[in-house]
């Protein structure tokens, strides 16, 4: 019979009665042994949360004997609310149970459940216990209680990296990984678990990469002292350059397991980079341009952080070097590891229209060689009308790149210069640009009166029209360093009402008046470096009382207008804008002492014939550079 008692019961009378009862020395042939009953109390209430450690109390009651032993077990939960474990009726249930002579115990219940790879800190548990009397009869109705065991937190793992197998370094979990070990050099990783649920009881470890197998991985062990894993990293056990992800987890008294984050690698994983980065630096930057068939070369100060402007279609030459890290072991050359350094370059550009371009690392099919006896090389870049940022990085023989590549900036194509700009009315009267001038016109008889339209007066049908004309002139030139034949060859202007100056090249806010070419695309110069454009203002109005009376002038009889003007260069001697990058690759000769390095041929000093290789050619539409904007304002006014 199952019993569950919540409070402590005074058992003195019952104990005395049991003590006085004895088995008869001559039992009756018809007297059969009665099974004991089990009582369980001081357990947590059914179906409520409880800590994973629970002090359980039980006892047995046997009317014709004693209960010297008990059998108990723990299951995840009842089956549909009903008890299913019965060691008196099932050999399998009996084998599942544990025999004890105690009547109480502090039990650690499983307060952890893995749900779809996520550790849950709550788990439903059922505790069964059945009394066994002095004749070995088991209570056929074990006492049982069901509740939810909980823990405050899951255990966690900590790692220590030994880059040289001797010196410990606390693991730093960062993205990208911060811990690095040498190429082909032994190292070690240790781990230990931390828990608030009693003590750690076991460990398991493995490599997340399927190509790496560690002795003893994927096996739980209770040897808590064996937590140091060594990596010989040589010969057949050599690790590839890149990130090694080593995972470990522990289990504690609550059967709770620490978690392994195999997605973001933030828990239970130590990420170690194999192979130190090479170090790259830029040594020299020069620019060469052609004027009057003469090549002129100038140094560029790439260290001040200020972008230097270079002429259109000029060549920027930059030299760079790299060195592999001394903490690596090299297979290319034991005496001169820098002989195996190669390079990649890339550019990021901003066009004059604001578009961005990133080339990616070039050459796109791999790397290009350094010279024969040192990790030094150079590159030459052809400039268009772009803002450039150039990067270069060394690549060692194992494919590891410099993670912090140096860079420098240049601006391609100088801005042209705007010399003069003026505006005159149809009488040839110039506008005073020094002050906010006022242009006035007499408002007299219209030039014509077209057929009635939507603006016609409903009573008379008359629609009057007047026209006033302006001429806009400008001149300038391209920068002296830009190629021979370059000039300002296109223009653009805006006419604004109620203009507010904007930032940079933006003409700003305000209502644009579509007068002449205002707001249109760039249009060609009238002649070399010269612009002259005529535009008209057409005013339509209705005045049924007669034009001469001027009783109803147009609403815009006194407007503040603003002109915003730009000139832009294009190159008559070039074929548009482009980027071209080349390098010189030395070719080895047959008598080299060291012909092959890292699976490919390297040049020897003073031998071979260099070849010119194009890394990339990037063509864009020729949009040139614009002059600084020229802005002036004037009032437009009608008078009698």
The strand count comes to: 42
- What's the CATH class of the largest domain, please? Mainly Beta
- Beta percentage is 35-45%
The spatial strand order of the largest sheet comes to 21-20-23-27-38-41
CATH superfamily of the largest domain: Immunoglobulins
Radius of gyration: 45 Å
Largest sheet, if any? 6 strands, antiparallel
State the share of residues found in helices, binned by percent. Answer: under 10%
List the helices and strands and how they pair.
Blueprint: E1 2-5, H1 12-20, E2 37-41, E3 49-51, E4 53-61, E5 69-75, H2 91-96, E6 98-100, E7 104-108, E8 113-115, E9 118-120, E10 122-132, E11 143-150, E12 156-162, E13 169-170, E14 179-181, E15 187-194, E16 200-207, E17 228-231, E18 242-252, E19 269-274, E20 279-291, E21 294-299, E22 308-310, E23 315-323, E24 342-351, E25 356-358, E26 368-369, E27 376-382, E28 386-395, E29 407-412, E30 417-425, E31 437-442, E32 464-477, E33 487-500, E34 509-512, E35 523-524, E36 530-541, E37 558-570, E38 577-585, E39 596-597, E40 600-601, E41 611-620, E42 630-639
